[in-house]
Design goal:
By secondary structure, the chain is α+β, with helices and mostly antiparallel strands. The protein is built from 2 helices and 10 strands. The strands form 3 sheets. A 4-stranded mixed beta sheet has the order 1-4-3-2, with helices on one face. Strands 7-10-9-8 form a 4-stranded mixed beta sheet. It is globular.
């Protein structure tokens, strides 16, 4: 097996209620939620509660009424209100592979009481809120072998 030379460290999603979306995902994956310092009202869900540093995987959740724009004269982005009061981020989602069996994923989803269903064998759609979905993929079969 070859070792990957690149990986995704984090992704950013828009949510109507960033805190609830982040805490629901944390409950599903065993993660930890902290406020997102660059934007009040944003939250980060670390995918593992045993954080070790800059290499930790996480998902940022922003309110739908802001967008990232370049800061004048710099490459660093800033948050700015979306013009016209629009809401953005529909259709954005993330696929997360968990060291769980399909049955364990079903139990986790039942515990957080969010709509979820298997799109096909090996990929479960979980709705964190009405317009925000994540895909959860079990890394193990019911027999314990990796699939």
């Amino acid at each position: 097996m070859t070792t990957a030379t690149a990986r995704i460290g984090h992704t950013s999603l828009y949510a109507d209620d960033p805190y609830t979306a982040a805490t629901t995902l944390a409950e599903l994956v065993g993660g930890e939620v902290v406020p997102f310092p660059p934007h009040e009202g944003g939250y980060v869900c670390f995918l593992d509660s045993q954080r070790t540093g800059w290499g930790d995987e996480f998902v940022e959740f922003y309110p739908r009424d802001v967008e990232l724009v370049p800061m004048a004269g710099l490459t660093r982005p800033q948050f700015s209100p979306v013009p016209g009061g629009r809401s953005i981020g529909a259709g954005s989602h993330v696929n997360i592979v968990l060291d769980k069996t399909p049955g364990e994923l079903e139990k986790m989803c039942a515990r957080v009481d969010r709509p979820s269903d298997w799109r096909w064998a090996g990929l479960m759609d979980v709705w964190l809120e009405p317009k925000l979905m994540v895909e959860l993929v079990p890394a193990r079969s019911e027999a314990g072998r990796y699939v």
